[in-house]
Amino acid sequence: MHGEPLGPVARVLYACIRSLIAGVAKLLGRVEVRGREHVPATGAFVLAPVHRSNIDFALASLVTRRRLRYMAKDSVWKSKPLGAFVSFLGGFPVNRGAADREALRTCVAVLEAGEPLVMFPEGTRRSGAVVEDLFDGPAYVAAKTQVPIVPVGIAGSEAMMPKGAKLLKPSKLVLVIGAPIEPPPASEGGRTSRKAVKALTEQLRIEVQKLFDEAQARRG
């Protein structure tokens, strides 16, 4: 379910789509990306951005040329062409109406295969300048697979495409990528305590808030 590596043709097509996203972000958002040196060049990691707009999925691709994997609403796959396209871009379905253990298992499989994974720690789109009430999912899978979490602040996406909007509006975009957060070491048996996961989630919240604040300040 975590998918196969992209072939040569698919890699070129993915690069073209990513370039198109970058072009639109530059044209409409004068996009600025800071901190790319913090993104691992190889191996698995969890990319954990703030989430204020539906376009955050696309903007996340600007942090690295590597294909990112991410969860998407299972309703996307009701349309076979759209589902096939999202799958190609790295998406896989999640049932947002329940605690989807299968989705978490898929997240673990993606990371164990050495692929980078996008997980929005807020769980869904929020509004405003404050990051709060994070879900433990990113911390849990990072701790279970012993991969780092790379936090990201994204400013301007809510103004470019607020909730309910159908079209993009010109708006300055700023992405600030933070230093990787290492997971706590696993105990004997490969398990990480719930307390350690909660502590990692709180550390992530603090870092994402700091990066979000910096992105907003740079946006002016």
Describe the fold and architecture.
The protein is of the alpha/beta class. It has a single domain (8-219), classed as Glycerol-3-phosphate (1)-acyltransferase (3-Layer(aba) Sandwich). The chain has 7 helices and 7 strands. The chain has a 7-stranded mixed sheet. Strand 3, helix 3 and strand 4 (91-94) form a beta-alpha-beta unit. Helix 4 packs across helix 5 and helix 5 crosses helix 7 (194-219). The radius of gyration is 17 Å and the shape is globular.
Query: Which whole number gives the mean pLDDT?
Result: 90
Radius of gyration: 17 Å
Look up the CATH topology: Glycerol-3-phosphate (1)-acyltransferase
CATH architecture: 3-Layer(aba) Sandwich
Largest sheet: 7 strands, mixed
Strand content: 5-15%
Q: Low-confidence runs (pLDDT<50, min 5 residues)?
A: none
CATH superfamily: Glycerol-3-phosphate (1)-acyltransferase
How would you describe this structure in keywords?
7 helices, 220 residues, 40% helix, Glycerol-3-phosphate (1)-acyltransferase, globular, alpha/beta, single chain, seven-stranded mixed β-sheet
Task: Set down the secondary structure blueprint.
Blueprint: H1 8-29, E1 32-34, E2 46-49, H2 56-60, E3 69-73, H3 80-88, E4 91-94, H4 101-112, E5 117-118, H5 137-145, E6 149-155, H6 157-160, E7 174-177, H7 194-219
Parallel strand pairs: 1-7, 2-5, 2-6, 3-4, 3-5
Antiparallel strand pairs: 6-7
Summarize this entry quickly.
With 220 residues, the chain is an alpha/beta fold. The chain has a single domain (8-219), classed as Glycerol-3-phosphate (1)-acyltransferase, CATH 3.40.1130.10.
